[in-house]
Structures are given as structure tokens and as C-alpha cells.
Input
Amino acid sequence: MDTVLLALGAPRRRDILRLVRRRERSAGDIHRTLGGVTFGAVSQHLGVLERAGLVTVRREGRSRLYQARPEGLEPLQRWIEAMWDDTLASLKSLAEAEEARGKGRPRATPAEEEGRRRRAHHKGGEKR
Output
């Protein structure tokens, strides 16, 4: 997963991945579409994406054709889903505990809470 995260860390590589997401494209086509980047840089970015398992490459004559490999993102997707599952489970537990504490009495509004704090502070001052 670290290799995938490192590969996705560069905005230009994310741009390239978007370009090859729906269809196969040659390195030259990717280079022309991006603009403002050398062919050598595009080639290096494609190599990083390939080593990370995010694109497939095949030769056709002198061209190398690249296409996104969605399954390359699966480890990252599973990790993110697990993080969300843990977070949502914690949130659910907190909400249930809050509900259990509040059963039988209505919850105070923010204005009521502020009034209670002021009265408690005022009473504390009178005792001195």
C-alpha cells in the first residue's frame, strides 16, 4: 500500500491515472495531452505507476500502451473502509451511550446550559 500512496502523492501521476482510466493510451498521447512536461518525465511517472500496480502496459509495435488497473487501488480502498468502519463504530457507541445517559429527561438547550453555568458561578461567588 505504501507504494500506491507514494505513486498517488504526485499530482502529475494522478492526472496520468485519470487519463488512462477509461481507455488505453500511448505514452506519446499522454505526453501531448498533459502539456508542459517532458516526454522523459511522463515516462518516469508511468514507470512509477506501473511498479505500484496502478497501470498495465503492453507493447504494440514501437508504442507502449497504458491503461489504469483499478484493482491496484484495492488495498488502499480496504484500508480506508476499515478506518471508516472503526470510526463509525466508535461514533455509534458514543451516540448510544449519550442516549442511555439522557433517557427520562430532556436535554438542555445551549441557553439553559449557559444559565446553569452562570447560576453556579454566581453561587460560588456568594459563598466567599
